[in-house]
Amino acid sequence: xxxxxxxxxxxxxxxxxxxxxxxxxxxxxxxxxxxxxxxxxxxxxxxxxxxxxxxxxxxxxxxxxxxxxxxxxxxxxxxxxxxxxxxxxxxxxxxxxxxxxxxxxxxxxxxxxxxxxxxxxxxxxxxxxxxxxxxxxxxxxxxxxxxxxxxxxxxxxxxxxxxxxxxxxxxxxxxxxxxxxxxxxxxxxxxxxxxxxxxxxxxxxxxxxxxxxxxxxxxxxxxxxxxxxxxxxxxxxxxxxxxxxxxxxxxxxx
Length: 254
Ligand SMILES: [Zn+2]
Fold this sequence. Notes:
single chain; about 250 residues; 6-stranded mixed β-sheet; 14 strands
C-alpha cells in the first residue's frame, strides 16, 4: 500500500492510499480537483471516500467525487454531512475490497462532537483531532472529551503512522518548545521539521511514538508539562492542566 499526502486549500492534507493494482481511496477530500489531478497523474481508480468530520475543508470535494466516480462515502453519523452514503460510528469496521484494507472507526469527540478517526493497515487518519505537536481546537466538544479522545489514540501501536488533516507542525512546534524547552526528542523533531519545510515537504505522516515523546497535548502527565502547569499556576489534576494547555495555545503568539 502507498500513502500519499495531497496538499490542498491553504494547509490541508487530503490523504490518498492506493495499492499496486491502481485502486485508491481518499480521506477528507476538501477539494475534488486536487484528487482528480492525483488520480490522473498516478493512473488510479477511486474506490471510496472516508470523512472524519463535517468541516467544509474536509468534505467540500466529496459530493463531486461521489457523482463522478460513484463510490461509497463513509462518514460519522451527523446530519450536517449529507454526502454520506454509509454512516459509521465507534467500533464499526469498514472493509474495503479494493484496495483491500479494513479500518476500525474510533469516536474522537472534541474538535467537533461527531468527529471520528480511522485505524487500519498501520495508519491512523485522525482529521483535526491530533496534529503533529498539537491537537485540534475545541469548536464543539469539551476539554474532557478531547483529552479522552487523545488518551484513546495514545494507546494505539506506537509505530502507527499518524495522518493528520493539516500542516500545522511548525506553528505547533513553537508552542511545544515554549511548554517543554528541555526535551531533546522535541528539539530533534523541530530540526527535522525545519529541514522538511525548507524543502516544502510534508512533516506528515509521523509515528505515534514520536508524538508521544514530543507533543505536549499527549504529555499532560509528563514532568515537563506538569512543571509548565505549575509555572502557570493551574491546579494539579491532568484535565485542568490539559484545558489550560489548550487555552494557552489559542492565545500563543510565538
Ligand atoms: Zn475541522
